[in-house]
Amino acid sequence: MTKRILICIGTAVLLLAVALASPLTTAASSAPVPATPIPQGPLYCLVPQCQKFIRYHPVDYSKPVNHVAAPQHPYMAPNGKSNMHCDPYMTDTYEVSGPLGLNSKVSSTYYGLAECVTLTFDSQGRIVTVLGGLGAPVLLLLDPQNLAELARYELPPRPWYWIFDDLSPLEDPSGGAYFYLDNEDNVVVTTHDYRILVIKVPADPSTGFQIVSQYDLSAHVLPQQWPNRDKVGPAIMDWNGRYFWYTTRYGLVGLVDRSTGVINSIVLPGEQIQNSPAVAADGFYVITDHAMYRFVANESTGAPEMLWRIEYDRGTRQKPGMLTQGSGTTPTLMGDLVAIADNADPKMNVIFLSRGTGQVVCSIPVFKDNESCTENSLIGVQHTDGTYSVIVENNYGVQSMLTTTFGNTTVGGVTRIHVVPNGSGGYSCYEEWTSNEISCTPVPKMSLNNGLIYLYTKPKTTLIDMWYFTAVDFATGQTVYRVLTGTGLNYNNNWAPITLGPNGGTAYIGSLAGLMMIRDN
pLDDT for 400-429, tens place per residue? Predict the structure, then answer.
């Protein structure tokens, strides 16, 4: 045992030296840059082999979920390849299979203190992502098989006074964390200098990324609120391809006419927008820290027009694990409904509203008293029998990236809610199951093909911080398997979403030090 501890100490010193020599550079490269694995924590060698892969239940290979597929946006990349939440309805579901835990292999690419958040896939199947950290965001083109870097483009950096902001760079979703890929292999991204950039993904990586068009939003954001400032959230094209919708942190909703460049906007006074909106043929769905909205574009004026506004219970405090005192969910569209979570006390509620009127048709509290909140989107499924399901993850207790160090973890819990028509034109909702898995901060995803929900979990341990890619059965809530991705702070995903590869059997998730890949062999 003494020899093993000495080996661990020596390994820790070596890994610390590697970690300090961060490979994050801004130089362009004409040749692929091979991936360098993310260093393991100093106690990795103490993890027993039996804890590196755990199978709890056999995989049933024939558990596809009956569902109605989310519509395909005519101006976005195919569903599952276009944005953080998979499709314009923000369902966080995939038609392809994810890993089944068959001889699973974990690989990674190391970028120092910087993480890949949103992953999209171009028409050649290559990864397009934005790397965010303390420096300027970087647009990357990666090989999906080995994570080699094929091309990069540095986006505008944060202004120097970001150090006074109430959100750290690793919590701030502006400046590139949210972006989408359109139907012509163009990245549509908003920047720290108040622009929408449309950037062509190169067919030949050696030619590099090229700006196709850009729109200056600087006259259509709110005045500086020192020490904080207004920030531009994601830009999303409307269903007809005429406008870009966008939002800002302090409650502005804008429309950019793509052909003329004319910008119109309205302000929602005293409200903040931190989460991604959803878009459909019937409008633009936005949630603030006070209310849920549906907007459309006024075709005669080109201005945003509010169709309805519904306030929800925002609770009495900003809970640990939340960016604001309000909902942390992106609106999830399913059939005639839109699903969100509130911030109520003592328990938050999952709420279902009519897309047509905004009327609440069903609401249900989840998790334990005084220990419930979610800062991540709900998984949403419209079933073929007219019912609906959502999956909600409990993020309560996340104070910072250090919350889960030294063996500590958060409250945890994952719940499935089922919604059924009640026969009188309304709906009833009930809890189908609750899992005790502790999925601290990831945006969870689900494969409709194999019926597995994918989480990124961290059980409480004595000292070693072990991070797992975890699969849960959608039908029963039982944990099917866990794969250890790594140990230590480098493997903390820090709010990065899980992404399933378009060819099946592969998943990706960002971490504080880069990007991980989990693949069936």
Answer: 999 999 999 999 999 999 999 998 888 999
Three-state SS for 153?
strand
The predicted structure's pLDDT at residue 15 = 35
Residue 414 to residues 33, 186, 325, 490, 513, Cα–Cα distance (Å): 38, 35, 21, 24, 26
Quickly list DSSP for 200-225. Answer: EPPSSGGG--EEEEEEE-GGGSPPPB
Q: Which two tokens stand for residue 286?
A: 């936005």
Q: Dihedral (C-alpha) 349, 493, 181, 326: value to the nearest 10 degrees?
A: 30
Give the residues across from 284 on adjacent strands: 279, 295
In three-state secondary structure terms, 415 is: strand
- Residue spans per domain, the chain: 32-519
Is the bond preceding residue 346 a cis peptide, omega within 30 degrees?
yes
Rounded Cα distance between 179 and 244, Å, is 12
- Rounded Cα distance between 187 and 191, Å, is 12
User: What's the predicted TM-score (pTM) here?
Assistant: 0.93
Where residue 298 falls (left for φ over 0; alpha for ψ -120 to 50; beta otherwise) is beta
31-82 pLDDT, tens digit each: 899 999 999 999 999 999 999 999 999 888 779 999 999 999 999 999 999 9
Contacts of 85 (CB under 8 A, 6+ apart): 91, 92, 276, 278, 330, 377, 443, 497
Nearest 5 degrees, angle CA 19-CA 4-CA 514?
Answer: 25
Helix (H), strand (E) at residue 5: helix 2-20
Q: Cβ–Cβ contacts within 10 Å for residue 403, how many?
A: 17
- Looking at the DSSP bridge assignments, the partners of residue 128 are 120, 141
In the three-class reduction of DSSP (H, G, I as helix; E, B as strand; rest coil), residue 354 is classed as strand
3-class SS of residue 46: helix
Superfamily of domain 32-519: YVTN repeat-like/Quinoprotein amine dehydrogenase (2.130.10.10)
Distance of CA 322 to the CA centre of its chain: 14
Cβ-count burial 207-221 (b if 16+ within 10 Å, e if not) = eebeeeeebebeebb
Q: Half-sphere exposure (CA, 13 Å, Cβ side) for 384? A: 6
Find where tokens 């062999």 sit. Answer: 521
Q: How many residues does the chain have?
A: 521
DSSP output for 288-304: -SSEEEEEEE-TTT--E
